[in-house]
Specification:
The structure holds two protein chains of two kinds. Chain A is about 40% helix and about 10% strand. In chain A, the strands form two sheets. A five-stranded mixed beta sheet of chain A has the order 6-5-9-7-8. The model of chain A has no long low-confidence stretch (mean pLDDT about 95). In chain B, about 45% of the residues lie in helices and about 10% in strands. Chain B is built from seven helices and four strands, in the order ααααβααβββα. Chain B is elongated. The two termini of chain B are about 30 Å apart. The relative contact order of chain B is 0.11. The model of chain B has no long low-confidence stretch (mean pLDDT about 95). Classes of the chains: A alpha/beta, B alpha+beta. The interface between A and B is large, with 63 and 52 residues.
């Protein structure tokens, strides 16, 4: 394993790590103290130097995003924190909220100083009851100790931070749907441009940043942008959290070097500890279920934005899902397709109509009732939502369309013989056990 | 008046909670408080009946259609009266790779209802990924989260429900 200095996870698992006292004892809020000595432009410059990229899915450079906010806007600038973690296979932000909420809050204060922002809203997944409670306590501690409120640490400007809980809608993790939801509406994504940095919450300039992205800021300000950049690769600064799940011996969240490959993640004794006994890798989803799937011969790729892009897939939200050689990939794809059909918001026709259609065809094939013509229709439906390759050609307002179509394109292209076997044998070749080595459940 | 309408004391409880929530928003953006307001109402009444939605809409200065539109968009809001316990089971990919389909079948049999249906005591639903992929399979009962489940453990959890 490539050794890295732990930043985001350095306090995880320590007793009381979620408290202000423990965070301060570990050096917490020293990044904010440094930021208070700097101008907003200097803070942004440090973040640009760090090569920090958004950890929510798109991998956009954080410093660049901040620079899109108009200077001297007559309207207030808002910060919206995306804690609506819901991309299937992703479970890192919940552990940041559980283990080290003050790292996030310090990041929020730093971002607020850089953006001249006085109000931040943390949009937390409705299902995160426990995490919301921990976060609320941490926010209260931050107010009590003068980190938030009248003057940030007695020196900065006024900063109010509020938590708003979602209510169960995957689409609200999309940044403009999140803003609609924060405005008290259903989560229908907005057309871009204008981008939220120009016209966001309540029509005012708004930066939307992911939890892990903001939690990286304290270390960047404390140790410098150059230090953070050097942890990563030429184009992606820092370490990153990856969420390992599926058919692997030790699922979990790991903070790894951007140079760590998927193979190392699966097999390293300090990471995934290998495949179930007697099993081998068949397929890997590298960045949450919307990322195009990789086959077993493609897993020597680094878990880094550019490297995964070269493989026509994406680093996404860090959700790495492993499927072993005894797993039915038609069944897997059906589950993924069904999820996007459930979660399509209904605004754009290709996605609203196409996602249930994909799901029905996949179920038909899985149950042995499919024909090769169905496979052609499936690809045609997916192409109507978003053609592929390359990435990013979706015909819908937001990326949920792409998210629904990319798995279909990639699974069918890379594992066509498995789909054809279902059609030819008129049944699922995996019979009653389609879910691989651990698919029978825990005992 | 159905059991969905608010009594005087429930109105009082809602009004004071809403007053606190509204301090989080700009004074000309009251309607933004819709999600927290609906969550508050549901915590008081158990679900969002037409009378309750109309009350929230009036308080926030929007149409009751707008309140209904929001309430029906989000799965955690109940616009029909659910069972006493809402059981949400994740059957997404990572959980299914750890036995979620078997878990759901077990629950359907134990609760006596298929997924998507309710009786007096239970509402059973398949839900979106709950961010427990590393501790799969998982479920929530009235928003309490349970993970790393076995069938035996689920039986124990069910047995403890009052």
């Amino acid at each position: 394993m490539i050794e890295v200095e732990k930043t985001i996870t350095r306090n995880w698992g320590k007793p009381g790590s979620h408290t202000l006292e423990a965070y301060r004892n570990s050096g917490g809020y020293s990044g904010l103290r440094k930021a208070l000595q700097m101008s907003p432009a200097q803070i942004t410059e440090e973040v640009k130097k760090s090569n920090l990229r958004g950890r929510g899915g798109a991998g956009f450079y954080t410093g660049m995003k901040w620079n899109f906010v108009p200077k001297n806007s007559p309207k207030p600038v808002y910060l919206a924190v995306n804690a609506d973690e819901s991309e299937p296979g992703t479970f890192k932000d919940r552990y940041i909220l559980e283990n080290d909420p003050h790292m996030l809050l310090e990041g929020i204060a730093i971002a607020a100083l850089a953006l001249n922002c006085h109000q931040a809203y943390i949009y937390t997944r409705g299902e995160f009851k426990k995490q919301s409670a921990i976060l609320n306590d941490a926010i209260a501690e931050a107010y009590q100790s003068g980190i938030f409120g009248e003057k940030v640490l007695g020196k900065g400007h006024r900063l109010d931070v509020y938590q708003v809980r979602g209510a169960g809608a995957y689409i609200c993790g999309e940044e403009t749907a999140l803003l609609e939801s924060l405005e008290g509406k259903k989560g229908w994504p907005r057309l871009k441009p204008p981008f939220p940095a120009v016209v966001g919450l309540f029509g005012a300039p708004t930066v939307v940043n992911n939890v892990e992205t903001l939690a990286a800021l304290p270390a960047i300000l404390d140790k410098g942008g150059d230090w953070y950049a050097a942890l990563g690769t030429a184009k992606s600064g820092g370490t990153r959290l990856v969420c390992l799940s599926g058919s692997v011996n030790r699922p979990g969240v790991y903070e790894v070097s951007m140079r760590t490959t998927i193979r190392e993640l699966i097999f390293d004794p300090q990471l995934g500890q290998g495949m179930p006994p007697g099993r081998s890798v068949k397929a890997v989803i590298p960045g949450g279920s919307s990322a195009p799937v990789l086959s077993a011969d493609e897993i020597d790729v680094a878990l880094e934005f550019e490297a995964l892009k070269e493989k026509q897939t994406m680093a996404g939200s860090g959700g790495v899902i492993i499927m072993d050689d005894s797993t039915c990939l038609v069944r897997c794809l059906w589950r993924v397709a069904r999820f996007y059909a459930e979660e399509s918001c209904g605004q754009c026709t290709p996605c609203r109509e196409g996602t249930p259609w994909q799901t029905r065809i996949l179920r038909k094939i899985e149950e042995g009732r499919g024909s090769s013509e169905d496979l052609d229709i499936l690809i045609s439906v997916a192409s109507s939502i978003a053609p592929f390759p390359p990435l990013g050609l979706g015909n819908t307002i937001c990326a949920l369309g792409d998210a629904a179509a990319l798995p279909v394109h990639s699974f069918v292209t890379k594992f066509r013989s498995e789909f054809l076997a279902h059609i030819e044998q008129k049944r699922c070749p995996f019979g009653e056990s389609p879910w691989g080595a651990y698919g029978g459940g825990r005992v | 008046m159905t059991d969905g309408a608010l009594s005087a004391s429930e109105r009082e409880k809602f009004d004071s909670g809403l007053a606190e929530i509204l301090t989080h928003y700009p004074s000309d953006q009251k309607a933004a408080a819709m999600l927290p307001a609906l969550r508050l109402l549901q915590s008081i009444k158990g679900w969002l009946a037409p009378e309750g939605l109309a009350y929230v809409a009036e308080k926030l200065g929007v149409s009751k259609e707008r309140a209904y539109e929001v309430a029906t968009f989000y799965v955690m809001f109940h616009t029909t009266k659910p069972g006493k316990y809402v059981v949400d089971v994740c059957t997404n990919l990572s959980c299914s790779l750890w036995g979620a389909e078997r878990l759901l079948a077990h629950l359907e049999q134990r609760l006596g209802i298929p997924a998507g249906e309710s009786n007096e005591r239970f509402t059973l639903r398949e839900t979106e990924c709950l961010a427990s992929c590393g501790t799969a399979p998982c479920l929530q009962i009235n928003e309490e989260h349970y993970e790393s489940l076995t069938l035996k453990r689920v039986d124990e959890i069910l047995a403890k429900l009052p």
